[in-house]
TrEMBL record:
Region feature (Disordered): 190-263
Membrane topology according to the record: Multi-pass membrane protein
InterPro entries for the chain: FtsK/SpoIIIE/SftA, FtsK_4TM, FtsK_alpha, FtsK_dom, Ftsk_gamma, P-loop_NTPase, WH-like_DNA-bd_sf, WH_DNA-bd_sf
GO biological process annotation, one example: chromosome segregation
Encoding gene per record: ftsK
Record family assignment: Belongs to the FtsK/SpoIIIE/SftA family.
Protein name: DNA translocase FtsK
Organism, as annotated: Mesosutterella multiformis
UniProt binding sites for ATP: G415, T416, T417, G418, S419, G420, K421, S422
Length: 748
């Protein structure tokens, strides 16, 4: 009915004609131009005569009221009558201010849309009220007053905030400008990477006709080879880890929503790539190929060098054994061959992927330093959209090598002093910090040496201060386990199985204006809105100190639990050690951390422990590494990125410009088990009688009340309330979660 009246009023005003009879003029005409006939002519003439063109605000107000009623009838939370009445009063005041200001302002603007209006612009209202105000304060002050009345009336009537509109417009402008700056920065990074790529000749060196010098094929990306294997890592034997005692729930991680996206620091603050270096020359490469064949023949082995692939640090020779020659014979004379060639650190690859040949890797005459800035500017890193992309370095062919930590999903790193392990860890950290804001990725850094991670102290991405006390490191692992369980509990409530799906569902709910709410972790009687979670990357610089200083069994159980289940909760581990022995890298830890990196190690036994096969003892150090993830047919040899102290300091200085970190206070706090033989929260609990007394005296049978009065954890307080329910003192919770006191009995 209301909609029909609004439609008729709109038609009457739209077809108004001064020639029609009406309130302001009396005449007899045979033909009425108004579509609603004489009734429409009289109604439109009366409105135009009283309010002028401002009469159209009646139509706008009617449409808005109709929409408000339609939408308001669908709301599940009905507004109280008192609040509804107050809302109508505010709307009436806003309508009066709007009409009054519009009529008076129309008088100055001389709006003659309908030709000659009956009472002039603004109608009788505008003419009657504007004249005395203009005579009193002047024309321009009066116009300002009327404009303010229109603005204020519109805000009250249509229930919006001009400040909010201005803020949204400003935010949109700022977003567009920032998007443009990000695009320019990415274009500059791509230009730098392309310039470096063009400067570095990728052509191989031609030698004699009997040996093919070719560019090695790019190493297979680990994402394609191990995605399915890593995808099942968190679904493996999670039940094998011993259950932890019940502890108090973890508090949600505070997020920084005021930080822009895009690169977090410009590549210009990092050291630029070094000039091109010829690692080998044509003559020496051809001579080496002939020497290898000659020395193998002197050992009674018939083999031919069919290809050579020079890289930034290592040159790989492809060897084709003769008919009936076993590959193990070539491997057995590897040390003798190195001595005969005058080259140390030879490494034999028993089978090159996709060929029937073996590989012989030896150091190049000249080393080429791989800078972190070069890898971050590469096309491979730019095309990797993951927030956990790691710039590891270059493969033997000189191609940038980038992997995704989220797909590994955890990484075990080993290497002796001087092997480049700490530099490699810094490269991984800077790779993540380069494109991730604190609300996307947070770090927990455990540094037993107290110097390796100290430069990162104070960056916004830290979840807690850098942990240097190993007892607090154990507390941090316990907190991470609680946080993992908390995330799984919330994912189960929301109805998703993975970290990424949870964030997408929460963001979608926020965009639709219906945020998801769950009981608060600290006070279940209160509701809190869910926010997207950040990834949590745990970096341990020395696993040996963490295991040997703390409780070995407890640390092993915590790491195993995180390695088995934390991936789907967005928690990832990077564990490093100088001692890859079985008392540090235990079989349980190794089995649950599928991705491994080995820098140079001391013995063949250490390589066997960390990589499952020998070879890492023959690396040449200074960033030379072997990398493997499940599903890869063989290990990949890489030259790691070099990260100088200047790179770290410059990047950290840029990151600190975004503000200070927002730490979670209880990450490093020790949390004792809340239930024991005499404090399990039942009737045998020493605090049971006291809890009953509190419930009867306060008449509040809630878990939060017992928890607050007794200063105990949530689990224990919940058990006490459940014990009272079984004893018939309090009722079971109703549909709204409330309980009532059934029998006013004493604690006895």
């Amino acid at each position: 009915m209301i909609a029909i009246l609004i439609l008729l009023l709109t038609v009457a005003l739209a077809t108004y004609s001064p020639a029609d009879p009406g309130f302001s003029i009396s005449m007899h005409v045979d033909q009425v131009e108004n579509w609603l006939g004489r009734t429409g002519a009289w109604i439109s003439d009366a409105l135009i005569y009283m309010f002028g063109v401002s009469s159209w605000w009646l139509v706008v107000t009617g449409v808005f009221s109709l929409l408000s009623l339609a939408l308001g009838s669908r709301r599940s939370d009905k507004v109280r009558e008192q609040e509804r009445g107050l809302s109508w009063i505010v709307s009436i005041i806003g309508f009066v201010c709007l009409m009054f200001g519009s009529c008076c302002l129309e008088r100055f603007l001389e709006l003659g849309v309908y030709g000659l209006l009956p009472a002039g612009p603004g109608g009788v209202v505008g003419h009657f009220f504007s004249r005395p105000i203009v005579h009193t304060i002047g024309v321009y002050p009066a116009m300002a007053v009327f404009l303010v009345m229109v603005i204020l009336g519109a805000s009250l009537l249509f229930r919006f905030s001009w400040m909010d509109i201005c803020e949204r417009i400003g935010t949109a402008i700022d977003t567009v400008l920032h998007w443009g700056s990000i695009r320019r920065a990415e274009a500059e990074d791509r230009r730098i990477g392309e310039q470096v790529r063009q400067e570095k000749s990728s052509e191989t060196l031609p030698v004699k006709h009997e040996v093919s010098i070719e560019k090695a094929p790019a190493a297979a990306t680990p994402e394609a080879e191990h995605e399915d294997v890593a995808g099942d890592a968190d679904e493996s034997s999670a039940a094998e880890a011993p259950k932890r005692p019940a502890t108090r729930p973890s508090a949600p991680i505070p997020l920084r929503t005021d930080l822009p996206a895009g690169p977090r620091f410009p590549l210009s603050v990092l050291d630029p790539p070094d000039p091109e270096v010829d690692t080998v020359d044509e003559d020496s490469l051809a001579l080496t190929c002939r020497l290898i064949e000659s020395k193998l023949k002197s050992f009674g082995i018939d083999a031919a060098v069919v290809a050579a692939r020079p890289g930034p640090v290592i040159t790989q020779f492809e060897i084709q054994p003769g008919e009936g020659v076993k590959g193990s014979r070539i491997a057995d004379v590897c040390d003798d061959l190195g001595r005969a060639l005058g080259v140390g650190n030879l490494r034999i690859v028993m089978s090159l992927p996709g060929t029937t040949s073996m590989g012989l890797e030896m150091p190049s005459a000249n080393r080429q330093t791989v800078r972190i800035s070069e890898i971050l500017a590469s096309e491979e890193f730019t095309n990797s959209k993951s927030k956990l992309s790691l710039a590891l370095g270059k493969d033997i062919a000189g191609n940038p090598y980038v992997v995704d930590l989220a797909k590994m999903p955890h990484l075990l790193v080993a290497g002796t002093t001087g092997s480049g392990k700490s530099v490699g860890i810094n490269a991984m950290i800077l790779s993540i910090l380069y494109r991730s804001t604190p609300d996307e990725v947070r770090f927990v850094m455990i540094d037993p040496k107290m110097v390796e991670f100290s430069p990162y102290e104070g960056i916004p991405n830290l979840l807690c201060p850098v942990v240097t006390d190993m007892s607090k490191a154990v507390n941090a692992l316990q907190w991470l386990t609680r946080e993992m369980n908390r995330r799984y509990s919330l994912m189960r409530r929301v109805g998703v199985k993975r970290f990424e799906a949870f964030n997408e569902k929460v963001k979608e709910a926020e965009e639709q204006g219906r945020p998801i709410s769950v009981p608060s972790a600290s006070n279940p009687d209160e509701m809190e809105e869910l926010k997207p979670w950040p990834y949590i990357v745990v970096v341990v610089d020395e696993l040996a100190d963490l295991i040997l200083v703390g409780s070995r069994r407890e640390v092993e159980v915590l790491i195993t639990s995180l390695a088995q289940k934390a991936r789907a909760a967005g928690i990832h581990l990077i564990l490093a050690t100088q001692r890859p022995s079985t008392d540090v890298v235990t079989p349980l830890i190794k089995a649950n951390i599928p991705a491994h990196i080995a820098f140079q190690v001391v013995t063949r036994y250490d390589s066997q422990v960390i990589m499952g096969e020998p070879g890492a003892e023959n690396l040449i150090g200074n960033g030379d590494m072997l990398f493997r993830v499940p599903g890869m047919s063989s290990m990949v040899r890489l030259q790691g990125c070099y990260v100088s102290d200047h790179d770290v300091d410059s990047a950290v200085a840029e990151l600190k410009k975004y503000g200070s970190p927002e730490y979670v206070d209880d990450v490093m706090e020790k949390v004792e088990p809340e239930a024991g033989p005499t404090q399990n929260g039942g009737e045998s609990d020493a605090l049971y009688d006291k809890a009953v007394e509190i419930v009867l005296s306060t008449k509040r049978p809630t878990i939060s009340s017992v928890q607050r009065h007794l200063s105990i954890g949530y689990n224990r307080a919940a058990n006490l309330i459940e014990a009272m329910e079984k004893a018939g003192i309090v009722s079971a919770p109703d549909s709204s979660g409330k309980r009532t006191i059934l029998t006013p009995v004493g604690p006895d």
